[in-house]
């Protein structure tokens, strides 16, 4: 008799999801962080788990996305164990490696030379970068390409896990923080800031980025840049689609990378580190899925009846 994994056992999967959703909701209540999004996410998770085979198929693939949200939302609970926060030293390293005119670094130089077209273009990129991941994931799901759907969702979790671990081991202030507070010892009371994206909000008279960044639990999580990581991962995931997709996704990834620097959210070093994290996550998940699929094929071949004729 062989045991079945939770993902292959509907009853086990339903109860596992219900237990995890309830446990996380209890955690946010106990820690005083509960918001309406936590209620909605917990309810959605349980409803999908019990609604039937179709919704469960979606949830099996997308479950890592919920785990990612839980991971990022819980960052504030772990800040007490992070390492020494880097401020001025990272600024000086950036200056030595990627000097800008007048002895500045590029995020600083752009903060003195903004213009409305770039504000709008980069603001759009910063607003859309996350939705690109979700749209591609949904596209795979509705195409019934479950292999790529699940692999993308797990790669998204892995790249975020890499980012969170580095945030704890090497916490680093973003350029806007040094411009506002200086390169001295970290000000732990510093509030999150929309930085250059505030100009996008001001142009349209909205509070999109102000609201988005007000919920950031970790001001000192600039290295690596997950803004740069996500679009590069989409380049890798969609590379098989051909030249048009390669060019389109690559141009968007370059735009987001530039926007991270232009809007003073990240150093060029952060962007490069984010690119490395994306490649590592993609390669690791692809290797794991290839090994899993190889094992599944081997198991299937063993279970085939012997002695019969087969046709190609």
UniProtKB/TrEMBL annotation:
Keyword match Membrane: yes
Locations listed in the record: Membrane
Keywords on record: Membrane, Transmembrane, Transmembrane helix
Annotated TM spans: 12-30, 36-53, 123-142, 149-170, 219-240, 247-265, 271-289
Residues of the Inositolphosphotransferase Aur1/Ipt1 domain: 89-283
Source domain of life: Bacteria
Membrane topology, as annotated: Multi-pass membrane protein
Gene3D superfamilies given in the database record: Phosphatidic acid phosphatase type 2/haloperoxidase
Pfam families named among the record's database cross-references: PAP2_3 (PF14378)
InterPro entries for the chain: Aur1/Ipt1, IPC_Synthase-Related, PAP2/HPO_sf
PANTHER family: PA-PHOSPHATASE RELATED-FAMILY PROTEIN DDB_G0268928, PTHR31310
Protein name: Inositol phosphorylceramide synthase
């Amino acid at each position: 008799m062989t045991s079945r994994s939770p993902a292959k056992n509907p009853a086990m999967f339903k109860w596992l999801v219900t237990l995890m959703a309830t446990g996380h909701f209890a955690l946010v209540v106990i820690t005083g962080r509960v918001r309406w999004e936590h209620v909605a996410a917990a309810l959605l998770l349980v409803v999908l788990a019990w609604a039937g085979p179709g919704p469960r198929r979606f949830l099996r693939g997308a479950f890592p996305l919920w785990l990612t949200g839980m991971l990022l939302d819980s960052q504030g609970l772990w800040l007490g164990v992070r390492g020494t926060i880097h401020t001025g030293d990272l600024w000086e390293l950036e200056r030595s490696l990627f000097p800008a005119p007048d002895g500045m670094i590029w995020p600083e130089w752009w903060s003195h030379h903004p213009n409305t077209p770039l504000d709008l273009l980069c603001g759009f990129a910063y607003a859309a970068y996350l939705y690109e991941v979700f749209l591609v994931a949904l596209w795979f799901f509705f195409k019934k390409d479950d292999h790529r759907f699940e692999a993308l969702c797990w790669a998204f979790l892995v790249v975020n896990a890499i980012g969170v671990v580095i945030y704890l081991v090497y916490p680093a202030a973003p350029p806007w923080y040094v411009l506002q507070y200086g390169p001295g010892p970290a000000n732990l009371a510093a509030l999150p800031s929309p930085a250059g994206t505030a100009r996008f909000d001001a142009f349209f008279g909205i509070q999109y980025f102000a609201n988005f960044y007000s919920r950031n639990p970790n001001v000192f999580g600039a290295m690596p840049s997950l803004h740069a990581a996500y679009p590069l991962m989409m380049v890798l995931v969609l590379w098989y689609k051909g030249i048009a997709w390669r060019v389109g996704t690559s141009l968007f990834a370059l735009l987001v990378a530039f926007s991270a620097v232009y809007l003073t959210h990240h150093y060029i070093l952060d962007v490069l580190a984010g690119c490395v994290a994306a490649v590592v996550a993609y390669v690791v998940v692809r290797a794991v899925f290839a090994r899993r699929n190889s094992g599944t094929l081997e198991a299937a071949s063993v279970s085939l009846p012997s002695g019969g004729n087969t046709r190609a």
